[in-house]
Amino acid sequence: MPKEPVAVVGIGQTKHVSARRDVSIAGLVREAAVRALEDAGLTWADIDAVVIGKAPDFFEGLMMPELYLADALGAVGKPMLRVHTAGSVGGSTALVAANLVSARVHRTVLTLAFEKQSESNAMWGLSLPIPFQQPLLAGAGGFFAPHVRAYMRRTGAPETVGSLVAYKDRRNALKNPYAHIHDPDITLEKVQSAPMLWDPIRYSETCPSSDGACAMILTDRAGADRSPHPPAWVHGGAMRSEPTLFAGKDFVSPQAGKDCAADVYRQAGIGDPRREIDAVEMYVPFSWYEPMWLENLGFADEGEGWKLTESGVTELDGDLPVNPSGGVLSTNPIGASGMIRFAEAALQVRGQAGEHQVTGARKALGHAYGGGAQFFSMWLVGAEPPTR
Amino acid sequence: MPDVLSAPLVVEFPFTRSLGPVQSAFLTGLRERTVLGVRTGDGKVLVPPVEYDPVTAEELRELTEVATTGTVTAWAWNPAPRRDQPLATPFGWVLVKLDGADTALLHVLDAPGPEAVNTGMRVRIRWAPQRTGAITDIACFEPYDGEATAESTPHSGEFADPITGIVTPARLDYTYTPGRAQSAYLNALAEQRIVGERCLSCRKVYVPPRGACPTCGVATAEQVEVGPRGTVTTYCIVNIKAKNAMNDAIEVPYVYAHIALDGAGLALHGRIGGIPYDQVRMGLRVEPVWTEGGRHPDHYRPTGEPDAAYDAYKELL
Ligand SMILES: [Zn+2]
């Protein structure tokens, strides 16, 4: 029996900000869920199961969200699952929900991811004072910056490329009402004159800390028929993992990322991602990850990713727009960031991205990664139902 | 198993929580000796109040005041109170249905012994003398000789100077052991030797060793001394202090580097010193600098050898 096609019929986000002191965590997730239900024209009674994801427990000290948030998400009397995969969790959570529909376990599933970074401490959660270990901590950027330098050495990319990404994403964010950072006075000079925090990473090339939630309603073919708005169809989805550290690991272009993308393209019948995909929402926590992931995801040959960025291909009006929403560089509630990528990809192919709509987008890739390039999750969504 | 290390590890952090409208009213109410519940669409009064109906998922905002007296619906005796529990003397855990409420609140009962507690007994709140807007504003319940009183009465939930956020400390207290392989590595470090383990399948040497090869999934046992010299394979210049007391002694800027020790199958992380930070480069040859009593090299410094060729370390970034 072929799999059931999966449609995204509802998408809801909160306005991402540095601190949502006016709501509890329950109130925050509720806001995103209600917006997704409204978009789908559905009520709580139409939801068969809830799949939720969040950042690692110690980030915000919330250990059992599936228990605490069941009321707020209308999950009483229904299956409720929680997914854990570090920073990629928003993507994996959506894929678990999609698989429940495609396997015909449930017909309509609410999936949601969130984080209140203002009430959490990610840095602390990642750096427990483990006995006997050397206390040398460079912060999150210190973990990633050496990989960026390795990429620059490997490819000979000019050092301005990172600032071009940040300048583009922050301008895109101005067109996205839900994005956290809205800096109407952004200039390339401003980006380039920001202090180097972890040389070669500037402050202006790092992601913010955000409070926010993102929810989606996934449903089957019959559910899509009842949708008041055009659905996005899932053409392929995959997850891959590899150890955070192992001999031979390629931090610049991890094998698990390549394998995950290849699996998604195979499912979706994509032969040439650069030509066949119209928009990409990828997880870029530090600007240089755009050219790195362009290579890892097969949009450019090895060593060539930065040329797409430099030549404007990834701009909103370019040939392959990357992060039209403003991306993680403009909005980063960590636990939700992956799902926001997936949801923004779906908004593009539904034609509902508003001011940051990529003209004529028919196929879009959503990408998430996390845990020190340990987990990868991706989906490819299209405006038409899958034919294979 | 010889010399496996272990040490206590206490992890604690004061997480903050924004309360939202319902919990804000509830906790502020406790500060004012007022217990609020919330009324559901079918007329039930839930105490403590919740933001969303557990049955229908509807948003609940209709607050209502209940009595400070109630009835025990279930209980368990706690003969040995632990750290941070509400009472220091033996007490009863009780579920109390306050008069006017339809659900029970979990709290503690101050009673001389389990023989003094029974389901159905009447109790009342004993307020804490200092109240801050927390569940501990109810110091405990105490036995009370009186009949069930009034219905609940509607309440706006509005108070002067409302509590909008609380701090909820989380604490883990356990014994950490790094295991056999890491212990052997740490014990060798104490002799200023750096010892990894080789995977018998792929022949890669893991430093620090984890006891198994993450690629091949087989146990590692063959100990291999590596270094002490190595090559800086990549690095960054840290210009901001991490918000962590453990790092306070290190002045910025400093160089945080990946260092492939000679003979190791992957790089470890360390600080580079003994050279101006802006002269550190990929391929720089370095050696560890040990300090008296330190378990780990304090940092790595240049050896003065010519830089390693990129091809020699490009797989070890
Ligand atoms: Zn091996």
Commentary on this structure:
Chain A: GO terms for molecular function: acetyl-CoA C-acetyltransferase activity. Chain A: Keywords: Acyltransferase, Transferase. Chain A has 388 residues and is of the alpha/beta class. Chain A has a domain at 7-122 and 210-225: Peroxisomal Thiolase, Chain A, domain 1 (3-Layer(aba) Sandwich). In chain A, 35% of the residues lie in helices and 18% in strands. Chain A contains 15 helices and 11 strands. In chain A, strands 3-2-4-7-1-8-11-10-9 form a 9-stranded mixed beta sheet. A two-stranded antiparallel ribbon of chain A has the order 5-6. In chain A, strand 10 and strand 11 form a beta hairpin. In chain A, helix 4 crosses helix 15 (334-350). The model of chain A has no long low-confidence stretch (mean pLDDT 95). With 317 residues, chain B is mainly beta. Chain B folds into 2 domains: 7-171, no CATH class; 179-316, no CATH class. Helix content of chain B is 9%, strand content 36%. Chain B contains 3 helices and 19 strands. Chain B has helices at residues 20-31, 179-189, 310-313; strands spanning 7-18, 35-39, 45-46, 63-66, 69-78, 91-98, 105-109, 122-127, 138-143, 153-154, 165-176, 194-198, 205-206, 222-226, 230-238, 254-261, 268-272, 285-289, 299-302. A 5-stranded antiparallel beta sheet of chain B has the order 7-6-5-8-9, with no helix packed on it. Chain B has a 5-stranded antiparallel beta sheet with strand order 17-16-15-18-19, with no helix packed on it. In chain B, strands 3-2-4-10 form a 4-stranded antiparallel beta sheet, with helices on one face. Chain B is elongated. The model of chain B has no long low-confidence stretch (mean pLDDT 94). At the A-B interface, helix 1, helix 6 and strand 5 of A face strand 1, helix 1, strand 11, strand 13 and strand 15 of B. Bound molecules: zinc ion (ZN). Zinc ion binds at residues 199, 201-202, 204, 213, 215-216 of chain B.
